[in-house]
Structure formats: C-alpha cells, structure tokens
Design a protein that fits this description.
With 320 residues, this protein is of the alpha/beta class. It is 32% helix and 18% strand. It contains 11 helices and 13 strands. The two termini are 27 Å apart.
Length: 320
C-alpha cells in the first residue's frame, strides 16, 4: 500500500505488456516491459532478478543514483570473492560495493538491514535452512559438524528456462536428488550458519526436485550436544520466533506441509526429536517464490524504507 509500481524491464520480453507475459495480471497491471534505463530513471527502489554475473553493473548504477537496490540474484550473497569464483565462476567487479551489501533475512539480521541501500536477497534453500537452524545454533545445542540438510523444491526453483530435467515427462511422477554435494547454495548456507554459530562450519546439503510447481521443504538433522527433550526444543523455538509475524511453529506432534505456505510469505517449522539417536529433526517449509524470493525482497524493502514490515505480505495461503 506504500509503493507504486513505476516501471518494469525485460530483455526477453521487451515491448510486451505484462499481461501478455503473465495473463493473470490482466486488468491489474498494464505496464509495458521496457529497458533497464527506464527502471533506474523512474524508480526509488529497484528489484533485480537476473542470472549471476549480471547484477553488479546495475547495482553500481543504482548506487551512483542513490537508489535502493535489492538483488534477487546471487551476485552479492557471498562475502568471499574466492567462494564466488569457485561456485559461480565470476569476480567482484567493485569490492567497495560488495562491502555495502547486507544479507537480507529479516528475522535474523533485521537491524543490519534497516536503512541500507544494497540488499542481497537470500536464496530459497538458504532461507529455509537458516530459519530452521537458527535457534539451535544460537543456543549452541547441537554438534555443528553433524548437520544434514535434506531439501526438496518445486520445479519453479529452476526458473522459466526449459531443461530436460524440468521437461514435464521427465519431472512428472518422478522424484530425484540433483547436484548432490555440489549445489551453488551450499556456500551461502554455510556462510549464514557459520555467522549464526560463531564458528566456521560445513554441512551436508542435498537438494531434490519435487514434481510440484512451488514450495520448499527442508528436513534438517543434527545431533544434540547435551541432553534435550522435544518439549525443550519446542519451547526454544516458540520463544525465539515469538515476535516474528512470518514464522509459524507447529504444535507439538504436527508436521509441516508445503501446501500450507503456498503463495505466502510464511515459514512453517515443525520440531521432532529422535531419543534413540539423540538427533534433533527440524522440518522447515516456505514458498520458494515468496518467502524464498519476491516476498522476502518486499519485506527487505519495507525494512530499508522504514515501512511496516508486513505491508503487502499478509496473504493467507489457499486451503486447497
């Protein structure tokens, strides 16, 4: 309610109206997709959804023009240039600009985000993992070398570009892991978890492709480093997230479901404890395109501009 969509741009669809690309926007948004110059020239806040390597120059232009730049791509997520070279094959074009960037998970880094001008909007898998693990890491309740993150994503996580893997006959009625121990979100996950724990850590991260349109479910396993009960685990999470409007802790005994966060900015978390093995099991679900991308970007904009944080984001997930 505090923002006006002033301009939109596209390389692939330049010259088309938004409803021509997304018919669901008919009678709501009639803007024509223009060029990047039009967006930077007419907007106070610029959101960029670009492949890695393409956001840095746009961010520099916005910085010179005094615009708030929120990058939904990967160019500013990693603090280490060496990690960026290893996982994305690129370099930091302007190291000073990277020092300005703030990693934007509001529930964990809210005060650092407020009033900033360059936000690295997190990846979808890292968001589900960080929100799922933060209370355990901040409370120092788990062996940090024992973390296994088993994640599943809907097909929209691969973007609009077609591949054989996301071709309907191949992904329908199918379920498989991909990029095992080599997914580009791994260093981002480890960077955030290391920051939360205060020590450098590594994790086992295995993503899977679900034959659904949208949603991420991360099931996280970690060994407790002291005696722990499910009741204590549940109380810890309720206290940690008690003031967070978009994190919902499930009642004890219930399990999360991606359906219940669909088309919303919520992260639902359910807690489980295996007494036989001494392992905490955390299940975290988000909509990969809302809390995992665009919704979180709007949440970051609200924080940067001093607006009510939930503005524009209080959608109720559809029941069916």
């Amino acid at each position: 309610p505090y923002a006006e969509l002033a301009a939109i741009s596209s390389v692939s669809f330049e010259g088309k109206t938004l409803p021509e690309v997304y018919p669901s926007m008919a009678k709501r948004i009639s803007l024509t997709l223009g060029c990047e110059d039009e967006v930077i020239g007419s907007c106070d806040v610029v959101f960029a959804s670009l492949p890695h390597g393409l956001s840095q120059e746009t961010a520099a232009r916005c910085d010179r023009a005094g615009k708030l730049f929120i990058d939904l791509g990967a160019d500013f997520r990693l603090e280490s240039e060496e990690d960026y070279k290893e996982w994305y094959g690129g370099e930091f074009a302007d190291k000073g600009l990277h020092h300005k960037a703030v990693y934007g998970i509001p529930e964990l880094f809210r005060e650092e985000i407020r009033g900033k001008s360059l936000i690295a909007n997190p990846g979808c898998y890292p968001t589900s993992a960080a929100l799922g693990l933060a209370p355990l890491l901040k409370g120092r309740l788990i062996e940090t070398n024992s973390i296994v993150i088993d994640s599943k994503s809907g097909v929209t996580g691969a973007g609009r570009g077609l591949t054989q893997t996301t071709h309907f006959p191949d992904c329908n009625e199918a379920f498989s892991p991909y990029k095992v121990a080599s997914h580009r979100h791994t260093p981002e996950i480890e960077q955030t978890l290391s920051r939360l724990s205060g020590e450098k850590l590594t994790v086992t991260f295995v993503p899977h492709l679900l034959p659904i349109n949208r949603g991420i479910l991360s099931t996280i396993y970690a060994s407790a480093n002291k005696p722990l009960t499910l009741e204590e685990l549940h109380a810890l999470y309720l206290e940690f997230y008690k003031d967070e409007p978009f994190v919902r802790i499930m009642p004890a005994g219930e399990a999360v479901n991606v359906r219940n966060v669909r088309c919303s900015n919520y992260c639902d978390i359910s807690l489980h404890f295996d007494k036989r093995t001494g392992r905490a099991i955390v299940a975290s679900v988000i909509d990969n395109m809302v809390k995992g991308a665009a919704g979180q970007a709007i949440q970051n904009m609200n924080l940067c501009r001093g607006l009510p944080e939930t503005s524009g984001l209080e959608m109720i997930p559809p029941a069916f």
